[in-house]
Amino acid sequence: MASLLVLNGPNLNLLGQRQPEVYGHTTLAEIEETCRQVADELGARVDCVQSNHEGVLIDAIHAARGLHDGIILNAGAYTHTSIALMDAISSAEIPVVEVHLSNIHAREPFRNKSYIASVAVGQICGFGPDSYPLAIRAMLGHLKVLQENQDVA
Ligand code: DQA
């Protein structure tokens, strides 16, 4: 059974209250519950972690090695600033799907750049809370292809 880490960064603990006109009314707890349900339906499992601290997020990525098969990552504003998170993903050699509730490419120019994108399998953004279940499906599809390629080799 595939095991995924759903990792959320700064300020995402305030979802539901934070700028609802941008991020909607769904809370992080509700998003995490949906992730658990969707994973369960698809025969996978998820653990969920949120932190407002860059170092804690880096530690969580390192700790995912050997424990999880993939990470669904919304790094919040660290997406646009953190070379350290980018390096953590490269170092951990674990597939990451980047997610955002909002479409970061349709917002302020400083949000158009993602350091995560260059080391992620792919990016899903702009679908509000639905970005997360979409990312889980995308990750499980990616892991299946990896497995099939390994079986052939
Ligand atoms: C976000 C987009 C980021 O630009 C912002 O800093 C966030 C949330 C999103 O999910 O849309 O904190 O990652």
Description:
- This protein is of the alpha/beta class.
- The chain has one domain: 3-Layer(aba) Sandwich (Rossmann fold).
- The protein is built from 5 helices and 5 strands; from the N terminus they run E-H-H-E-H-E-H-E-E-H.
- Strands 2-1-3-4-5 form a 5-stranded parallel β-sheet, with helices on both faces.
- Helix 2 (28-41) runs parallel beside helix 5 and helix 3 packs parallel to helix 4 (83-92).
- It binds 1,3,4-trihydroxy-5-OXO-cyclohexanecarboxylic acid.
Largest sheet: 5 strands, parallel
Instruction: Please identify which CATH superfamily we are dealing with.
Output: Dehydroquinase, class II
Number of helices: 5
Count of individual beta strands: 5
Specify the helix fraction band: 25-40%
Structural class computed from helices and strand pairing: alpha/beta
- Give the percentage of residues in beta strands: 15-25%
CATH T-level fold name: Rossmann fold
